[in-house]
Amino acid sequence: MKSSPKNQKEFIFGSFVYCYDLICQDRKTLNLTVTPDMRICVKCPHDTAPDRIEQFLKRKWYWLQKQLHFFGKHQRRTYTKEYVSGESFHYLGRQHQLLVKQGSDDKVALLRGVLLVQTTKSVTNSTYTKKLLTNWFNKKRNKVFADRFDVMKERFDYKQMPTLSIRDMKKRWGSFISKEKIVLHPKLIHVSKDCIDYVIVHELCHMRYKNHDKKFFAFLNEKYPGWENKKEKLELLGVHVL
Asked: CATH: 3.30.2010.10, 3.40.50.2000, 3.90.76.10, 1.10.10.10. Which one for 145-237?
């Protein structure tokens, strides 16, 4: 998708003044996003009239305020996980409260919204608790990603399918490496399955169309209708937040 450079603009609504990045693209609709670092971005079709953008932002004002408030509050509360009872962890889009108990065996289980870690060490041994929880997430991740990949690849009639790999990436949820491999970000285990499915389908579409052009998005629409909502959810989260 061809884009023009970012232009910084101002939107004034009542006593509020917002600065936002305006990006013109080969697209049909207007799109508004707020990143976790509270940057506002508007994507629009080329030659969109300023009045249309102004009216769009006015219609989105309440949503915009809500997102800014959410991320502002999140920034103030962001802290390093201590792996102690009471902390929250996301798994497949749902939030679970951590409960650490001492026991005769090491195990992790989900019980009615509680992420229970039973440890043979002291409950204050956060390093060991982290190790148990990390191993549990790794096992779940490998199975969930493999299962969703098997389901999503059935939407395609490729003679040869790429292998699935997992790798930490700074800014991407997924990546198409070649016709032999696609990569998923490990933190996708924290988001809902429909978002995982979207990333897998997106990368599989690159098997046919390398660039984000009109043919690619037409193919994506065919293989995963409604993908825009999933993309927006992931953009709002950001790989560095979860």
From this structure: 3.30.2010.10
